[in-house]
Amino acid sequence: NMQITPLQGQFLGFLVKITQTKKILEIGTYTGYSSLVMALNLPKDGQIITCDRNKEWTKVAQKYWDLAGVSQRIILRL
Asked: Which of 4, 7, 63, 78 is 20–30 Å from 50 (CA)?
């Protein structure tokens, strides 16, 4: 229950895109799905700072950010 649904992810990405957001602060990374969706919709110079306290879950997030090629847009703060 801590992760958003795919439909919510699409909506979140849509909001980032239509508002032309360049900076995002996310509190609670979990497995990084929200961060991933937002990063995919950021402009090339956009950036996300995401904060979490669980190193194990954020390792999962980092794996998928790397696979999607958006790691350079995401700063993780533990």
From this structure: 7
Query: 10-46: buried (b, 16+ CB within 10 Å) or exposed (e) per residue?
Result: eebbeebeeeebeebebeebbbbbbbbbbbbbbeeeb
For residue 73, with 0-12 CB atoms within 10 Å meaning exposed, 13-18 middle and 19 or more buried, which class applies?
buried
Length of the chain, in residues: 78
7-38 tens-digit pLDDT: 999 999 999 999 999 999 999 999 999 999 99
> Distance (Å, rounded) from C-alpha 75 to C-alpha 50?
6
